[in-house]
TrEMBL record:
Family to which this protein belongs: Belongs to the RutC family.
Pfam families assigned: Ribonuc_L-PSP
Gene3D superfamilies, alphabetized: RutC-like (3.30.1330.40)
InterPro entries: RutC-like_sf, YjgF/YER057c/UK114
Organism expressing this protein natively: Tepidicaulis marinus
Source organism superkingdom: Bacteria
GO molecular function, one term: deaminase activity
Name of the protein described by the UniProt record: Endoribonuclease L-PSP
PANTHER family, alphabetized: 2-IMINOBUTANOATE/2-IMINOPROPANOATE DEAMINASE RIDA, PROTEIN HMF1-RELATED
TM segment ranges: none
A cellular component annotation (GO) from this entry: cytosol
Cross-referenced SUPFAM superfamilies: YjgF-like
Length: 127
């Protein structure tokens, strides 16, 4: 099976400079790179804002690949502060309302940029 690199408009510099795709689609499976709370206006100071941006980015990458959040079967969420899981979960509930994907939560000491507090990676399967 051929793999298709998924890089929505506006992510070209990430592909070029950081040398990774936002997602890779193989057959009906999409592996989405970790999405963070980095947006067009920078990085919000709060976990809710960062979580919302990360999930909006995830949604955008999936759409570019021909999928949606309802196709997500698993997520891995990286937190720099495990005490913020509840706040992040409240935002996640806005995006995943039912048929919840499998989920793994991992505490880490740092992410790619010091201001980042959350990163969300996902696997989706288009039915």
């Amino acid at each position: 099976m051929a793999k298709e690199l998924i890089n929505p408009p506006g992510t070209e510099e990430i592909y070029k400079n950081w040398k990774f795709s936002q997602a890779v689609k193989v057959g009906n499976t999409i592996h989405v790179s970790g999405q963070t709370g980095f947006g067009p206006d920078g990085i919000p100071d709060d976990i809710e804002g960062q979580t919302r941006l990360a999930l909006q980015s995830l949604e955008r990458v999936l759409k570019e690949a021909g999928a949606s959040l309802s196709d997500v079967v698993a997520t891995t969420v990286y937190h720099t502060d495990m005490g913020e899981i509840g706040k992040a979960q409240s935002v996640r509930d806005e995006f995943f309302k039912e048929n919840y994907p499998a989920n793994t939560i991992v505490g880490v000491t740092a992410l790619a940029l010091p201001q980042l507090r959350i990163e969300i990676q996902a696997v989706a399967i288009i039915a």
